Amino acid sequence: xxxxxxxxxxxxxxxxxxxxxxxxxxxxxxxxxxxxxxxxxxxxxxxxxxxxxxxxxxxxxxxxxxxxxxxxxxxxxxxxxxxxxxxxxxxxxxxxxxxxxxxxxxxxxxxxxxxxxxxxxxxxxxxxxxxxxxxxxxxxxxxxxxxxxxxxxxxxxxxxxxxxxxxxxxxxxxxxxxxxxxxxxxxxxxxxxxxxxxxxxxxxxxxxxxxxxxxxxxxxxxxxxxxxxxxxxxxxxxxxxxxxxxxxxxxxxxxxxxxxxxxxxxxxxxxxxxxxxxxxxxxxxxxxxxxxxxxxxxxxxxxxxxxxxxxxxxxxxxxxxxxxxxxxxxxxxxxxxxxxxxxxxxxxxxxxxxxxxxxxxxxxxxxxxxxxxxxxxxxxxxxxxxxxxxxxxxxxxxxxxxxxxxxxxxxxxxxxxxxxxxxxxxxxxxxxxxxxxxxxxxxxxxxxxxxxxxxxxxxxxxxxxxxxxxxxxxxxxxxxxxxxxxxxxxxxxxx
Length: 495
What we know:
- It contains 16 helices and ten strands.
- It has helices spanning 26-36, 66-78, 89-96, 109-117, 164-174, 206-217, 227-234, 251-259, 294-324, 331-341, 348-368, 371-392, 397-410, 417-434, 436-451, 481-486, and strands at residues 43-50, 53-60, 103-106, 120-125, 131-135, 180-187, 193-200, 246-248, 263-267, 273-276.
- The longest helix is centred in the middle third of the chain and has 31 residues, at 294-324.
- Residues 1-16 have low confidence and may be disordered.
């Protein structure tokens, strides 16, 4: 059944330029806005007289500050007793009447309606084909808090929030230079979402910036609900488990990435930023590394890399050795493993997969449950299920220890958890079917896949491949502050 058009116009259609330009009749503009937002109680349209001319104000009650509207717009306009000029009245109001700096002119009625939905007040003047948009936003916003996913021992406690202007302010505070540039885009067919493209003019590669802008301009989403939508757009190899588009919740980390010649994106409504391109080695670098002594920072980075390798390969190696290469184990250890695994119901491969899936079940339940009981569910569930399964002879204690160790180490590098969890299952299956030889082939295929990622002209495995020893001062190890300041890293040097 075909849906009939009602007497109102869907607000979602206002971005399609269906209303044309601003009418010279201010009252007509007000009537159009009333029809657009029919049955919408928080859209306010007020009509007044100023020097004998009709003036119409339109705003959204929940998104604007009543005090700012009164003090900066309504009172100055209504108290103006002098005759308004016949021409360029909008410019006259901006220059002589309105008491605010966040003001602009609009010729498109569609753009004016979108400005209402962004927390601005629109002023229509009779006889003018331009309206005045005044920023009087009072958007609901949470206070600045420390990021939960990027906790640091030292450094700033500020994290991004959902307001793109607030996030820009946090970055601008750290990059006090004229080279810091911002291009504000509006992406989405139905709902326009503001996206701030940030870069350092003297550091960024122009080809990288153009490629980012090209991909953003080619997006065909109706609405952008989250920055993840754009992450898929900016990735070349969307089927790969790894990504050259990084995320961060920290303004200081974001500023540091921009200073390295990268392009950053701040999406309105999203409390984290996107950074392109990101190298594989950057997943093992943290802000705390630059607050610690070089020797300790190097030690911690080696720990992170080791944890990643353990989380990916340890269960597969254990399964393959126990099934195909028992001669690699000492007799005492082999005897103990055989003794504990002899009474279990499943073979080692199936056992490893079952334990891993149980861990993912418990982890997901802990994340989705309320915080008050989430941790308790995770801990109690793991203890009860693990102990009961071992006691009942369903799984063996050695395999439980191996999977638990790999699960713990996977949390050390949180940015790589998703590919790590999938790869771990894959290598368990490969190790159980083909042994160590299959694992080595699988590892080689993984390395080749990572080396083939070359978004924006930068290799994902740089500076490992192509090899550049001069850039190793801040990869696996961390050089001293003096050495880092003498040769500031710029990602464009990796081309």
